[in-house]
């Protein structure tokens, strides 16, 4: 089931992102690769992580951009058009501390009400790790360099710039927790 779920997620993400947004598609593929790399620390949840990693940015697809906030647009698409598992939808909706960005956009209540945070810390941290250790081109990077790249791309005074500055300490803590879990794995 996990394999099929991952394959389905890849097909959906590719269909929505590869043509209109090739760089976003490259990032998505890299994030999905990171999910495969951390599967050992998640056990039975590895398939869910892979699907969430693959679909986390699907809301950027031009045809899905209704609210103009990709976590919310992506989650609504997955819930309404595909009727996927609620946990997957909530991971996509809240990936990489999206609630903080939703607040900057005046959408906090919408996001929090429709898609409550998932109370599964390792799974949530693992998705942050996958997203925030992957460049826009899909290559591996550090969380510090990724945050710096986002700030540089959007500017510190933009909505995204304000969000990423606020979220950075949480992002770094999530990445550190996953790196510690990976280090603790038997070789």
Provide a descriptive summary of the structure in words:
There is one protein chain. The chain has 187 residues and is mostly helical. 70% of the residues lie in helices and 0% in strands. It is built from 11 helices and no strands. The protein has helices spanning 2-17, 22-37, 39-42, 46-55, 70-82, 86-93, 98-104, 108-114, 121-132, 143-154, 159-184. α2 (22-37) packs across α9. The longest helix has 26 residues, at 159-184. The radius of gyration is 15 Å and the shape is globular. It starts with a helix and ends with a helix. The relative contact order is 0.13. The model has no long low-confidence stretch (mean pLDDT 95).
Structural class: mainly alpha
Strands, count: 0
Pattern of helices and strands: HHHHHHHHHHH
Major sheet details: none
- Counted by DSSP, the helix tally is 11
Question: What structural keywords apply?
Answer:
mainly alpha; 11 helices
What is the topology?
Blueprint: H1 2-17, H2 22-37, H3 39-42, H4 46-55, H5 70-82, H6 86-93, H7 98-104, H8 108-114, H9 121-132, H10 143-154, H11 159-184
Helix pairs in contact: 1-2, 1-4, 2-4, 2-9, 4-6, 5-6, 7-8, 9-11, 10-11
Task: Write a concise synopsis of the structure shown.
Helices cover 70% and strands 0% of the residues. It has 187 residues and is an all-alpha fold.
């Amino acid at each position: 089931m996990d394999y099929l779920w991952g394959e389905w997620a890849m097909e959906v993400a590719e269909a929505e992102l590869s043509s209109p947004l090739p760089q976003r598609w490259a990032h998505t593929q890299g994030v999905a690769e990171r999910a495969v790399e951390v599967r050992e620390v998640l056990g039975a949840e590895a398939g869910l992580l892979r699907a969430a990693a693959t679909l986390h940015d699907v809301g950027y697809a031009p045809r899905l951009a209704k609210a103009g906030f990709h976590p919310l647009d992506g989650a609504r698409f997955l819930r309404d058009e595909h009727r996927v598992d609620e946990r997957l939808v909530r991971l996509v909706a809240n990936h990489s501390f999206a609630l903080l960005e939703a607040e900057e956009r005046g959408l906090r209540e919408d996001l929090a009400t429709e898609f409550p945070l998932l109370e599964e810390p390792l799974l949530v941290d693992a998705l942050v790790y996958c997203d925030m250790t992957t460049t826009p081109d899909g290559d591996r990077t550090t969380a510090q360099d990724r945050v710096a790249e986002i700030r540089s791309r959007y500017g510190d005074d933009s909505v995204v710039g304000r969000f990423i500055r606020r979220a950075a300490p949480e992002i770094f803590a999530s990445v550190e927790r996953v790196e510690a879990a990976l280090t603790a794995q038997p070789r």
